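Task 17 of the worksheet. Students: predict the tertiary structure of the chain below and write it out as structure tokens. Keep your answer in the requested format; marks are given for formatting as well as content.
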Amino acid sequence: MGPFILKPLLYCYILLGVCTPVKRAAKILHPIHVSTSNIEYNAKDNKFEVICTIFTDDFEAALVKQYHAKTDLNKPEMHAAMDALVREYVAANLKLSADNAPVKLNYLGFEINREATDIYLESDKLPKVKKVDADASLLYNLFDDQINIVHIIVNGVRKSEKVNYPDKRVEQVF
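Model answer:
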């Protein structure tokens, strides 16, 4: 008699699951909290070129928590206001030094790439680099399980490191 009762219950659960209105699944799209920072030294221009990639919904939540401001990185009419918040947030949470000297990163802008936001930065001209240090604490104000993956590329040599909250320091010698 057990299988006769369980089978209809199973069908009810399936039917309810299919017929229940679907809510926006932003919170369950990515149960892992991760960002990547690609830091490449362009020997031709003698500059660092940086691209940080962060899930857009997480990034917006971090901006709201940090600045208590309305955010929407997707709306073109809010792009200028979002530029100011993104610039300030990234400047506070990504620091770079080359050969033990701080590197000023100039904010170039951001763009939405599907579910992620790409943030572009560039340094001023620098002499050839041998040692690179990066402090990456992106989204640490939001998640205590945040992972920041940092790729540093100098002279075509790529070195990558995973940084788990609360650690933030990456040191690479080339």
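Marker's comment: The mean pLDDT is 87. The CA atoms of residues 60 and 71 lie 6 Å apart.
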